[in-house]
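Researcher: Please predict.
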Amino acid sequence: MLEDGDSVEVQGSTSTYTLSRQGNVFMCTCPAWRNQGAPVDARTCKHLRKHLGDAFETSRVGSAAPQRSAATVKKDKDAAEGKAPPVLLAHKWETDHDPTGWWMSEKLDGIRAYWDGEGFISRLGNKFYAPDWFIADLPADTLDGELWVGRKQFQRTTSIVRSGAQSDEWKQVTYVVFDAPEAKGGFEDRIAHIEKVMKRAAPPHARALEHVVCRGMDHLREELVRVETLGGEGLMLRQPKSLYAVGRSNTLLKVKTFHDAEATVIGHAPGTGKHKGRLGALVAQLPDGTTFNVGTGFSDAEREAPPAIGAIITFRYQELSNDGVPRFPSYVGERIDAKPVALKPKKVKPEPEPEPEPESGEAPVAADFKVRLVHDLEKKFWEIEVRGTEYYTRFGKLGSPGQTRVTDLGSATAAKSDAEKRAAQKRREGYRIDKP
């Protein structure tokens, strides 16, 4: 017999479980006891029956197993079959996307957990078994969030959540709620719903995730730096008034952390709009010859007096493209302790293309002459300029600095010929000459 306050470990078929008694409540840490829909003082399991005796348990709770609701049976069946819950998944944030007005929050490095009103389910359909005291005060509503210990504590979180142990280690975990899948309305309505149900339930081991409206690219960069400094993983962006769409959606974007690198300034791209008459972007080059533009991260003073050509700069970027070009490069500062490095342009072997027939009205591409083309439907620009044996290609969305690439063919004649072919190909793709 277990006395009040006693506990004992017993060996199950696959794991060791703990039997304990608190007053008239006899508990077991096995899934069969935890997942019963009966009140805790009316639950039993085969481990309690074996330890306490079948006669004692029958007199205490009866011989029949507690009845569970149809909804509980269905949820347990779905979990047993590994059926994934209907969750919203994110796309990666692209560098040409303006985050202004979107809801911004920290990207937590925890374990995604869908709360169905009775238990936690992973995004793949697996059940997470939290202690009763952890989930006792959670709302009956459907919630979406993460089980989280803290920044840089993903492995610790995984160890606690996936162990299945009902230990005090769960006191380190917090369920951070960031959405309410079944609440009506746009994201703002769902935020208000979360705040209401969380305030009413006041769960001691759960909280709502803080969201703020992004004021623009500089705000996004500042917040990302703040989160990174604290050891966080990154940021999430949510489209205002967006619905909870099941599956991967462009209404939810993840912003990854940045990497630092150095590059040499090889040119200055003029600014447009509010930056007209001063620096728009630095044309920079990596040691391997990869050329790209750095158009954000500058103060007004730095745009008025940018780093000189040949200077070494430090920049921060999100990731490298398949071509090795830094994505979302942001200026950090000039390296005053580094000497300029002479770099060779990255050699790119041109793809063979058939010689095009001359098109009426098409301007020839001559050495030291830049041709600019625009695509009206796709709102893109593409331009090429031949400089001796090299040609520089710049492309991107209209109104943006775009990306710059340099190709050295070792011959002025070959550079001019290849540039003409590429310009003609762009014309066939729907581009037209951009007239000043």
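Model: The longest strand covers residues 259-270.
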